[in-house]
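queue> pop job 88
queue> type: inverse folding (structure -> sequence)
queue> payload:
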C-alpha cells in the first residue's frame, strides 16, 4: 500500500465536566495524517470542516489542530456509532460534533 494512516487530526470544539467534576476538552476528528512509502507526509481534512467555527482565544489569529495516534478498535480509528448518530453529529453545531462525555478523545 503506497500510503498509510499515521495520525488522526482533531480539534477542540468545547469543554465538558466529567462525572468527577473535572473539566475536559471535547474533540472532533476532522481528518487524518498520511505517510507514503517514500516518507512524504500529508494531511487529509474532512470537506465539511470549517475552521471558522472552532472556538478560539480572543485576539488569536490561529487555531490548533492536534495529532493523535489512530485507534485500532475494530480495524477503524473511530468508535462504532449508529448511522443515525453519525449523521446527527455531522449536522450538529460545532460545539457538539463528535462528542462523547466519557472519553478524553472521543473519536
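queue> result:
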Amino acid at each position: 500500500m503506497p500510503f498509510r494512516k499515521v495520525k488522526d487530526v482533531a480539534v477542540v470544539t468545547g469543554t465538558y465536566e466529567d462525572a468527577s467534576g473535572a473539566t475536559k476538552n471535547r474533540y472532533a476528528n476532522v481528518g487524518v495524517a498520511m505517510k507514503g512509502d517514500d516518507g512524504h507526509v500529508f494531511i487529509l481534512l474532512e470537506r465539511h470542516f470549517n475552521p471558522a467555527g472552532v472556538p478560539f482565544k480572543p485576539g488569536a489569529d490561529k487555531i490548533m489542530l492536534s495529532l493523535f495516534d489512530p485507534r485500532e478498535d475494530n480495524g477503524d480509528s473511530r468508535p462504532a456509532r449508529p448511522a443515525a448518530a453519525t449523521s446527527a453529529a455531522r449536522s450538529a453545531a460545532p460545539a457538539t460534533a463528535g462528542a462523547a462525555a466519557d472519553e478524553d478523545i472521543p473519536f
